[in-house]
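Sample pair:
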Amino acid sequence: MRIETSRTVETDPVEDHAFNDSAASMTPDWYDVDQPLRSAVAHLASCSSKFNWVGVYVLNGSTLELGPYIGAPTEHTRIEVGVGVCGTAVARNEDMNVPDVTATDNYLACSLETKSELVVLIRSQDRRIVGQIDIDSHEHAAFGPEEERLVRDVAEALGERWLEEPAADRG
């Protein structure tokens, strides 16, 4: 599905996953039970003008597969663990805040305009990595502690509801 807007393109190349909406005590205002990943992306994209590309990658074996995103189209719909900032975050088992992508050896250039990138891992209730939120900015050092916390809160909300089975009708 593709939705054209005045500033972005939103697509979801892979299906969303099933979520246990009763798993968490409080449901965030932004959370849509029918489209959890898409609603997370839309919420984050609306939070800051510095967030020029916002997407979710779902971990499938040793490959990150692009889910819903808002921003310029990308050819990076599948990324192997250990490749680029996204794959390196999974390999290192840690979130990554890259203030200057040109200083990163294995950066996968999605856009010449991208100057900084933030990757926050999504962990299921048993703390396994199941995906990640990836945000690109056209500004150097765009992501400080406030932005990191915001994205971590969204990743935690998704992770505590994550189930393993894909759901074709969720997006």
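The chain has one domain: 2-22+30-165.
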